[in-house]
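Section 5.1 Outputs to date
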Amino acid sequence: MRHLIDPLDFSRAETDRLLALAEKIIAAPAEYAHKCDGKILATLFYEPSTRTRLSFESAMMRLGGKVLGFASGDNSSAAKGESVADTIRMISGYADIAAMRHFKEGAPFVASQHAQIPVINAGDGGHQHPTQTLTDMLTIRRSRGEISGVTIGLCGDLKFGRTVHSLVKSLVRYEKIRFVLISPEELRMPGYILKEVIEPSGHPYQEVREMEEVMDSLDILYMTRVQRERFFNEEDYVRLKDSYILTPEKLALGKRDLAVLHPLPRVNEISTEVDADPRAMYFQQARNGVFVRMALILTLLGLEKGILEEEG
């Protein structure tokens, strides 16, 4: 039994095969409409979510399966003090696979240690968000034709952004990736990501404060919001929340085939005027998340052979 807790739980080869399966589903969704007949997905969301929770539910329903779960820890026995370990033990008797989002870093990993069903990390605090990473990589692959060789600008909250941290960990496994890190001083990429992930990979990177100075060099611009929920000080949040706003004027500096990504939700870091630009791919990116999660559910349930390598 395999889980997906960290983006690196899957090898690069396994990741590529899963993304290829997602593309097959996009091309012929009807062929997969009954693959999960009789299967149940549990969505255990201790933290609010729209896209991730609903895309998991949509994915399972499109595969012919069913869904049960909760959308807030307040609506579960966690409010009574039940541990994650006990919850997943109980859920293992109700469902065939579980997706868990938790405000505590490491909670999905703890769940995986006590589960009798596959567990998917749907986001844990400021730590990891592997299914968003798979979604991002599928979008890059479909926009560029491949992942290797891209110059990607990561813009905004690079300190607390779990989506950014997960994406970087996965992208370093591909060839000729160049990272451009765009952020205010207070929200720079954490030192451990630079020293333990990017630098050992040998991929070049640069840190800048203004997106305008690097726009013309980017193949991918990955925007992020400044997350109020990650700040302890409201004054710091108010001061930094409008640090970077992508406007049509700034986008005009980019390449004609630039792809603009955003994990969403958007607050105001991308002007709504940008939405009409064909380079704006964030809503397509959100849709891609359904197909990635369909592929992941099939893979972890063993319903699609040859994706995961046999251990040992």
